[in-house]
């Protein structure tokens, strides 16, 4: 049972963060397609902004990589719970921060399509929600350090 | 640093004003003080014309013509009209092409036949009707009941002809009416239409090199005239419109050239040092390394005139942060190589400067990759470089990210203290110094929590903290009632503590990005090494996979390594250095710059 709980945690960690990133990049990409119809000279900026919500999925994968050494059939319930908790943190925070980051960048892209010079501002504002995915990733790293003591 | 400015006021007789403006434009030194932003009808026409030229230039950029430069002998505007006419004709022909293709698609199932046959049949008493329906809607009994001939079948639709003499057959299907032109005629028209489009394309390709050169020069000329027209509006009229008074800014370093001109021409002028409240324009003046980072700072905003230019201060940090996010010696080499190639290809000095910056980022990646012992995501701890690897595990990377954050934030506060001293006097430096001492003591305590040995400095730490608190609480607004200062100091203290922890946490992103990039690289290596076991094609697939995988990782790392340090610079560092902007960019009137 603990072994299964740990893997559910990994599913949440990689799956939710990845889904969030996939949805986020789609939102950015869709906004870019619309904006490019009006201004075809902003593609490089659209590409950079659309790629921004992609990092949360990477953090989910990175967290899995950090915690994978602790997953084995002999894992205790406490250790599995820690991995489950880490997965819940990384998955939900990664998912939501990717979606909301995508909303910022999509609005920025749309505004750029309307002729406003807001690339840098969007870049700076777009990074704000990612901090929390980063904190979630760092939390997973810290949880990983605590797991051996839970044996 | 920000170059010092001098303010000039020129007094001219109205008859001399236009020649003076021409001279000023040739000098290209003075940033004119604006008195109005209204556009004259002439300026509106000029902008419209520039827009037309720019549209044509965009088109040429897309065409990327490699034809030899011709010589039509036409002036720029005539050539522009001719090109616009050609583009307009091409658009019409493209629409016609679409329509013809649609009509041909409709007619093609019926094949080629002579339309004149239909009236001949009708004269003989035989009527013809043309039909189509979905294949599964076609009833076989129709062929038995009526004289029906199948013509063909395309995309699940059956095309057939019904021949009748008396009553038209009652068929549950679509009836087709032919266009005025036969399929052959339409195909002929389409061929001609496509040939015309190809001719126009060829014309545009052949004309592009000449037109591009002409139009670029024309845009420059019109914008010069636009600026001149704009400058004519900026002077104020005095003495019943007999005099014109024009104001402008000039960097101190360029003043002698202007003074020489003014004295030669005997122009009445008044000069004074720039005052902050007059909002002088900003011209940055940095050495080569900091100058590379000026475009990054400009992406946010320019500082106010009495501010410090923070470019030289954030530049080394930005470079290190990029290296932290892409800490890999091989990646650094790739980035340097890319920068070098792009620098060689770049034409403008600005683009060359950006590519030099890319190479600096690459060097930083090599440095950080060395410190962390990584090359192409392989661990270098078991190589000859082992003794020089200082950051050996994830815990140390985590702490190093926080340490860099603490250093940058304290550096920002120190800059703020120094700046306040220069701007407002010694008393105003005390609160930032207090903040610095307080944060320094907090940082040392934090280092102890992360496992550092601070036993030697711990006895003195409380002095540091209390003296910092004392300065912060009592001097947050000097010359104010001390009791009110203490009360508002509590609010300041709350902001300092919460802000500091929030800012420090933000630097964890360096750890997250660096580790994510390393993990992704490691996974690429692992998958790649498994491909080596594939018989025969294994090594080839391995090389292709490694190149693609690591290229993607470098691209992702470069994006994150640029965007996140930008946030750390503009949000964390600038706020701790109390950066004030936006300043207005120095834009001299004229052709020189």
Notable features of this structure?
heterodimer; A: 151 residues; mainly alpha; Four Helix Bundle (Hemerythrin (Met), subunit A); 6 helices; elongated; B: 593 residues; 3 domains; five-stranded antiparallel β-sheet; 18 helices; 62% helix
Q: Could you write a compact summary of the structure shown?
A:
Chain A has 151 residues and is mainly α.
Task: Draw up the topology in text.
The complex is a heterodimer of chains A (151) and B (593).
Chain A: H1 2-38, H2 43-51, H3 55-67, H4 77-113, H5 119-127, H6 130-146
Helix pairs in contact in A: 1-2, 1-3, 1-4, 2-4, 3-4, 3-6, 4-5, 4-6
Chain B: E1 5-13, H1 17-27, E2 31-32, H2 41-63, H3 76-107, H4 117-123, E3 127-134, H5 140-145, E4 147-154, E5 157-164, E6 174-176, H6 183-234, E7 236-238, E8 243-251, H7 255-265, E9 268-273, H8 288-292, H9 294-300, H10 311-325, H11 329-345, H12 349-372, E10 374-375, E11 378-379, H13 394-424, H14 430-449, H15 458-474, H16 482-506, H17 508-531, H18 538-576
Antiparallel strand pairs in B: 1-8, 1-9, 2-8, 3-5, 3-6, 4-5, 7-8, 10-11
């Amino acid at each position: 049972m603990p072994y299964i709980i740990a893997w559910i945690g990994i599913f949440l960690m990689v799956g939710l963060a990845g889904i969030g990133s996939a949805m986020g990049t789609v939102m950015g990409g869709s906004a870019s397609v619309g904006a490019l119809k009006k201004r075809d000279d902003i593609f490089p900026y659209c590409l950079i902004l659309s790629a921004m919500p992609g990092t949360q999925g990477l953090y989910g994968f990175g967290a899995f990589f950090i915690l994978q050494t602790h997953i084995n059939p002999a894992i205790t319930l406490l250790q599995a719970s820690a991995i489950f908790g880490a997965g819940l943190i990384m998955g939900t925070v990664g998912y939501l921060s990717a979606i909301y980051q995508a909303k910022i960048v999509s609005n920025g892209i749309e505004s750029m399509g309307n002729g406003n010079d807001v690339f840098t501002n969007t870049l700076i504002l777009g990074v704000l929600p990612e901090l929390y995915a980063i904190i979630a990733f760092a939390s997973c790293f810290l949880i990983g350090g605590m797991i051996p003591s839970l044996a | 640093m920000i170059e010092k400015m001098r303010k000039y006021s020129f007094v001219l007789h109205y008859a001399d004003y236009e020649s003076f403006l021409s001279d000023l434009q040739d000098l290209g030194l003075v940033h004119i003080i604006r008195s109005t932003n209204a556009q004259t009808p002439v300026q509106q026409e000029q902008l419209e014309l520039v827009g037309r030229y720019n549209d044509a230039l965009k088109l040429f950029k897309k065409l990327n013509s490699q034809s030899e430069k011709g010589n039509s002998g036409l002036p720029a505007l005539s050539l522009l009209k001719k090109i616009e006419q050609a583009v307009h004709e091409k658009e019409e022909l493209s629409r016609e092409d679409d329509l013809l293709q649609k009509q041909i698609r409709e007619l093609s199932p019926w094949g080629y036949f002579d339309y004149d046959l239909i009236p001949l049949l009708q004269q003989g008493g035989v009527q013809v009707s043309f039909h189509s329906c979905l294949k599964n809607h076609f009833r076989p009994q129709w062929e038995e009941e009526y004289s029906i001939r199948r013509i063909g079948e395309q995309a699940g639709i059956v095309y057939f002809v019904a021949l009748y003499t008396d009553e038209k057959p009652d068929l549950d299907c679509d009836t087709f009416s032919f266009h005025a032109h036969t399929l052959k005629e339409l195909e002929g028209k389409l061929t001609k239409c496509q040939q015309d489009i190809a001719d126009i394309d060829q014309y545009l390709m052949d004309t592009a090199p000449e037109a591009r050169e002409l139009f670029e020069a024309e845009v420059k000329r019109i914008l010069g005239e636009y600026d001149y027209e704009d400058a004519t509006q900026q002077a104020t009229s005095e003495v019943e419109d007999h005099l014109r008074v024009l104001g402008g800014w000039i960097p101190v370093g360029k003043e002698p050239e202007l003074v020489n001109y003014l004295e030669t021409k005997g122009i009445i002028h008044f000069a004074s040092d720039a005052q902050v409240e007059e909002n002088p324009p900003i011209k940055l003046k940095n050495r080569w390394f900091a100058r590379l980072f000026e475009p990054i700072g400009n992406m946010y905003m320019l500082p106010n005139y009495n501010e410090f230019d923070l470019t030289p201060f954030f530049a080394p940090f930005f470079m290190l942060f990029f290296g932290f996010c892409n800490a890999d010696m091989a990646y650094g080499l790739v980035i340097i190589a890319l920068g070098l190639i792009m620098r060689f290809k770049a034409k403008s000095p600005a683009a060359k400067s950006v590519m030099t910056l890319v190479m600096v980022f690459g060097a930083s990646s090599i440095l950080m990759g060395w410190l962390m012992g990584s090359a192409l995501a392989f661990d270098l701890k078991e190589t000859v470089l082992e003794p020089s690897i200082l950051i050996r595990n994830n815990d140390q990377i985590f702490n190093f990210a926080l340490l860099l954050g603490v250093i940058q934030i304290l550096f920002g506060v120190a800059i703020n203290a120094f700046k306040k001293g220069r701007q407002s006097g010694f008393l105003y430096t005390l609160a930032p110094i207090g903040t610095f001492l307080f944060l320094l003591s907090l940082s040392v305590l934090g280092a102890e929590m992360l496992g550092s040995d601070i036993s030697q400095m711990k006895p003195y730490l409380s002095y540091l903290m209390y003296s910092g608190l004392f300065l912060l609480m009592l001097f947050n607004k000097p010359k104010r009632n001390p009791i009110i200062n203490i009360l508002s100091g509590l609010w300041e203290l709350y902001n300092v503590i919460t802000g500091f922890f929030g800012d420090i946490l933000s630097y964890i992103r360096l750890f997250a990005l660096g580790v994510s990039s390393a993990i992704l690289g490691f996974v690429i290596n692992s998958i790649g090494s498994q491909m080596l076991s594939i018989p025969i094609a294994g090594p080839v697939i391995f090389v292709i996979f490694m190149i693609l995988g690591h290229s993607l990782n470098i691209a992702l790392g470069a994006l994150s390594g640029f965007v996140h340090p930008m946030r750390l610079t503009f949000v964390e560092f600038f706020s701790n250095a109390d950066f004030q902007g936006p300043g207005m960019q120095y834009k001299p009137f004229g052709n020189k710059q």
